[in-house]
Design goal:
Length: about 325
Amino acid sequence: MGRFRWGVIGAGMIAKAACAQVAKSGRHEIVAVYSRTYDRALKFAGKYGAKCYTTLKEMLGDCNVDAVYVATPHSSHYANALECIEAGKPVLVEKAFTVNAAQAERVFALAKEKGVCVTEAMWTRFQPVVLEVVDAIENGEIGAVKRFTGGFSTPATWARRFLSDRLFKPEYAGGALLDVGVYPLSFAHMLLGVPDRLECRAELADGIDYRDEMTLHYDGGAVCELRCTLKGLESFTGVIEGERGKIVMPNYTRPKKAVVFDEKGRKKRVINGNRGYVYEFDALADSVRRGETESRFMTAEDTVEVMKMMDECRKQIGLAYPESIEST
Ligand SMILES: NC(=O)c1ccc[n+]([C@@H]2O[C@H](COP(=O)([O-])OP(=O)(O)OC[C@H]3O[C@@H](n4cnc5c(N)ncnc54)[C@H](OP(=O)(O)O)[C@@H]3O)[C@@H](O)[C@H]2O)c1
């Protein structure tokens, strides 16, 4: 089986981090790059001997490209994904998938119509340790899940120094929720599905949310307490409490280990594994080879349901982005 050939849109922080790992795997090749600033795209493309394009249309016309990785700010994902699908190219779209659920639904509807595979690059859901934790829960190792607590943060002081300004601009759908809040929300959704009731509280300034606290209530009594912030650091440890034990996951969004405890708090076993970006690229490539239009690890329904949860959060905290990026 030959290497899977990727076109990349965007040449920023995550494109650099993800593509370095993906190219190193030997299973994938970065063959084409398009980004807003040609010089930056050219420098990035040069690392992989990839071809650099001045328009997305040109890149999508390249029959060498098996699929496209969308690594632009949230506000561009919708238009980028639609253009790729129209051109018949499978797409791996960075989180948050789109700006709102209506856009996500439109992307998946078009993908289905055209028979093209589309998946959200929510890397947590593809990590080996996470998949093993899901198996452990399905096998009843800690009984029914009663509570999940988890947070995520990118401190603004750090981001202003090392990242682009997209995080602080409403026109890029910046703010904490779509950038970091999506992680605990997606994790809670993976464990328990759509909550029966969701409460969100936030601190807003300059048209974005700096800090959110979300409580998800499920009719069976389960609760998720989730936090995200651009103001300082959150704990990156996720704790899943079940009726007969718990699982503690340091760096739960990208874990290298998870520790399983019994109902008396005694350590039962440790789940270890590698972590990285390559797993989501492997999954998309496998789905394309099997002729699927979505990945079983992160389905269209998963993505749309999480986007709906974020729409509900934004409704409760009164956060709307500019109409130009909210429209479908
Ligand atoms: N999975 C993860 O761990 C992870 C981590 C970080 C970010 N992300 C996600 O990845 C995405 C990008 O984040 P980032 O931090 O990499 O952002 P970034 O550093 O600002 O990079 C974005 C890139 O997209 C380009 N771009 C912007 N608008 C564009 C457009 N309309 N068309 C084509 N290219 C455009 C930018 O070009 P210029 O250089 O010319 O501005 C830049 O190269 C976001 O969705 C974010 O949530 C995921």
